[in-house]
Amino acid sequence: MTDVYRSYTRAEKRERARLLIRGAKQALAGAEAIDPRFERRLDAIDARAEDRGRREAAALRRQYDKAQDDLAAARAAERAAKWADRATAKQARKQAERRVRDTERAIRRAGLA
């Protein structure tokens, strides 16, 4: 198992499962009976999923960094706010904290943490 994040589409998951089942059936018939086209198709699907996963992981990390920056700015604005503006600044800070938590959750769900 590799530690590379891959993001498969539904169609790729179905095609990959179908190819693995057919390859297993051929493997039962004998090692020389396995069609090399299955391996090439599996490798192509894995390569596309790996590229997509790399892009999604980078986007999630960028989104997390931006959320962290926004949270720092909101905290600074809350500290510097006058008494009348403090409630608005506090609400903005809480929203920024929610965005950070949501982004962290998405990263964990993707298996990147």
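Above is the first protein from milestone M3; the second protein from the same milestone is given next.
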Amino acid sequence: MTYRFTDPDGDALHIEPTRRHGRPAISLRNLRVDIEGTSVAVHVPVDQVEELIAGIRDTARQAAAPPAGPVTAAGLPVDGDVNPRSMATVQDVAEDPR
């Protein structure tokens, strides 16, 4: 049996039973629609599936949490927003009198 999850962009995640190094596992395969034939698989031993699910739940909670501090118009945290030319923070660049 294969489980398939498709995101709004049409990219799909296929989950199917497999064996890896002689042990039962599940294969998580990403199938992208924008690059024909591109596929990457991760094999998770069945005794580590609950750990994977717990990690997914933790990550989902973090994604759903409101930002801890001020954000830019793009929704990015103000702290850590980096100017790639100087590697200074945007706040530092704005305060520079030059």
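Note on the second protein: The beta strands are 3-6, 12-20, 23-31, 39-45, 82-83, 88-89.
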